[in-house]
Amino acid sequence: MKLLLVEDDRVIASGLTYSLTQEGYEVTHCATFAAAQNAIEQDTFALCLFDISLPDGDGFSLCKQVKEKSDIPVIFLTARDDEGNVVMGLDIGADDYITKPFRLRELLSRIRTVLRRYHGETQKNQITVGDLTIYTNEARVFCSGKEVLLTSLEYRLLLIFASHKGQVLSRGQILSNLWDAAGDFVNDNTLTVYIKRLREKIEPDSQSPRYIHTIRGLGYRFGDA
User: Fold this and answer.
1) Which letter does DSSP use for residue 161 in this model?
2) Nearest residue to 132 via CA among 204, 31, 25, 47
3) How far is it, in rounded angstroms, from Cα 89 to Cα 78?
4) Is the pLDDT of residue 61 over 60?
């Protein structure tokens, strides 16, 4: 499980990185606001640990950036313990707030609690296959952390596949569940076009599909190759 640690104090960061790694987490450490921004854009994390005071920015802005990208849990690590900062951090979407100095066991407990709560709340509304994540309550799709814009019909087609992960679906089964915006059945030729378009948007290589596999003579199977 990948964690993003943003902490400018090298001693604290080194100790936390070692301890979290010993607990089985994969830790990416950034010492600056700019480095953290780049990490957020380039990678996907299960949880973020943000110091508030950074040499070139602040953790509040990073939290906003993370939450705009995806609903990833955030815990603030900071020496600021006044009520105003606590309220501000929680108001912008932080999931917890722990004040330095803190005990490692307490931090680990907070991380586990937030992750359990987060996954418990989102599991029913989230489908993840490989690097592809579908947030069904928001009708949003992300691939490798970047949002993929789908039409209404493309999204419904993806949901049909994702809801039958690992199963072989015949074209007839797909067609029977897929209606166009006007309420008419999508015909066989149109289905071919939409599968092609969907592959172009979600597949790393649409010519060698990772998710939507053609099973000759039978139909299609959805899953992470």
Assistant:
1) H
2) 204
3) 11
4) yes
Torsion angles phi and psi, residue 209, rounded to 5? -60, 140
Phi and psi of 206, rounded to 5°? -65, -20
Q: What is the dihedral of CA 80, 84, 86, 88, to 10 degrees?
A: -120
Determine if the peptide bond prior to 209 is cis (ω within 30°).
no
Q: What is the dihedral of CA 68, 33, 59, 41, to 10 degrees?
A: 20
Q: Could you write out the DSSP letters of every residue in 77-121?
A: EES--SHHHHHHHHHTT-SEEEESS--HHHHHHHHHHHHHHHHHH
Specify whether the CB–CB gap between 39 and 63 falls below 8 A: no
Between β-strands 212-215 and 219-222, what pairing exists: parallel, antiparallel or unpaired? antiparallel
* Contact by Cβ (8 Å): 220, 195: yes
Closest CA to 34 of 12, 6, 11: 6
Q: Are 10 and 33 in contact (CB under 8 A)?
A: no
Residue 88 CB partners (closer than 8 Å, separation 6+): 60
The DSSP code sequence of 42-81 is H---SEEEEESEETTEEHHHHHHHHHHH----EEEEES--
What is the pTM assigned to this prediction? 0.55
> Which domains does the chain show, CATH number per domain?
2-124 (3.40.50.2300), 130-222 (1.10.10.10)
pLDDT in tens, 117-146: 776 655 567 888 888 988 887 788 998 888
pLDDT digits (tens, 9 = 90+) for 188-224: 888 899 999 999 999 999 899 999 999 999 999 999 8
Instruction: Enumerate the β-bridge partners of residue 35.
Output: none
